[in-house]
Amino acid sequence: MGGGQLMIRAILFDLDDTLLDRAEGFREFAERLADRYADVSPEERPQWIKRLIELDERGYKSKPQLFRELLEQLPCRSNAGWEELYAFYDQEYVSSSRLMPGARELLAALRPFYRLGIVTNGRDCIQRGKIERTGIGGWFETITISESAGCKKPHPGIFARALSQLGSSPEQTLFVGDHPVNDIQGAYFSGMKSVWLKHSQPWPNETAMLPDAVITELSQLPAAIRLVSGQTAASEYGLSSGA
Q: According to the CATH classification, is domain 10-21+98-229 in 3.40.50.620?
């Protein structure tokens, strides 16, 4: 760090698998979908759910494609078309949203010291529904979603839009996310420092740039902020933005 402090005044977060436990939320939804549509015996039900989760590819497969593949590969009731399954997803998925452990406590600790925002890929109705369901929207000054932004992470345009709405420069903003390319590489090329939440995404060998800090749970973020900015602990959370 060259011995100097990097003044972090704002923090942007990814949403799924960072603030929200997307894997557990989708598993709960998959069980609801199975209750309604799986045409299998009780003994076969766990395998049906497991295959649906595999097909979902951690949320990176489009939902119309997911439900088309589901109908091709898994036995379903009542001659349901993929449109019906998609409509069920739109109706039920948001209610399965759940926070990562410690997310609410972390945001409460950070908010007095930093301007906070979210940058997430996805559809506005789904992503905002998750935020509303989990009750975290009030912590954030900006929520930038790819559908309305017109571009997706790692495109620099979505980061630039969030920074503009937040009123912060890239040099004074830290990005926290779980995806090596969408989050960490995207933040790097947008001029931000980054913290990688090592969760479900493996680090690809072909990604040359590295995060400025790595954590495995959200409670470790305050220490990572101190590491990135060269600060020393000043309180229980060690938060001191100089703002």
A: no
